[in-house]
Amino acid sequence: MNRAERLSSVLDLLAEDGQIEVDQIVERLGVSPATARRDLDALARQQLLTRTRGGAVAHSVAYDLPIRYKHQQNPDAKAAIARAASELVPRGAVIGLCGGTTATAIADALMSRADIMDPAPDPGLTVVTNAINIAMQLAMRPQIKTVVTGGVVHARSYELVGSYTDGVLGNVSLDFAFIGANGIDPVFGPTSHDEREAAVNALMASRAAHAVLVVDSSKLDKRAFASIGGPRLFQTVITDDEVAEEQRTRLIDAGYDVIVAS
């Protein structure tokens, strides 16, 4: 287990009860007490926890997520997709993140990376997002420059939509945009249940040098109500290893690069 994976594991342990002791880290992760203390100190410097005598407690979070985030479907697949997306992003990149559970998982994966979270004069990452919950997570990480689009809050998803959102996105340049969808058809392209979210997602993708669809395999060969920019807007699809070979082949034949996350 490398340092970044170990720090992420410490945060997972902390999330279970809201507090953790050095002895627990030693027992669960098989590290020395000195290493456990150094890891807690490193996470405290990143403002991811508060150190206590002999351990740490979680920061309090002054917001609650909609039901879709608490009881998300296919969490393991989305975590795998998030790791694969994070691997595409170099330190110092400018990325766009839409709302949704997969994009939230990508934010978590990026925040666990030591190269991004280590203190430095320049931002380890710049994230442009229209998702309030993602912005709140990132705002506590001074190593990440967070840009919020503005707009009208969509209560179901915590996403910002509308002309104010368009005004900000129309003036930014992104290296990558990671966009979720409710369905993707190889010919018709990605789709969303909500036309306002679809419009924002399409604009965000259009501002990126590389637009990436992040969809678990349950979304493949499905269509929803509103098109997200058509089939030619996105170059890459990241999905999970439950994808059928014929589904992967159809996406490749339609012109997508397909990354299967395991």
From TrEMBL:
Q: Which Pfam families does UniProt cross-reference here?
A: DeoRC (PF00455), HTH_DeoR (PF08220)
Upper taxonomic lineage: Bacteria, Bacillati, Actinomycetota, Actinomycetes, Micrococcales
Query: Gene3D superfamilies from the entry?
Result: 3.40.50.1360, Winged helix-like DNA-binding domain superfamily/Winged helix DNA-binding domain
- What highest taxon heads this organism's lineage? Bacteria
Alphabetical keyword list: DNA-binding, Transcription, Transcription regulation
Give the species: Agromyces sp. G08B096
What this protein is called in its record is DeoR/GlpR family DNA-binding transcription regulator
HTH deoR-type domain location is 3-58
Q: Which SMART domains match?
A: DeoRC, HTH_DEOR
Q: Name one GO molecular function term.
A: DNA binding
Which InterPro entries does its entry note?
Carb_Metab_HTH_regulators (IPR050313), DeoR-like_C (IPR014036), DeoR_HTH (IPR001034), NagB/RpiA_transferase-like (IPR037171), Tscrpt_reg_HTH_DeoR_CS (IPR018356), WH-like_DNA-bd_sf (IPR036388), WH_DNA-bd_sf (IPR036390)
Record keywords: Kinase included? no
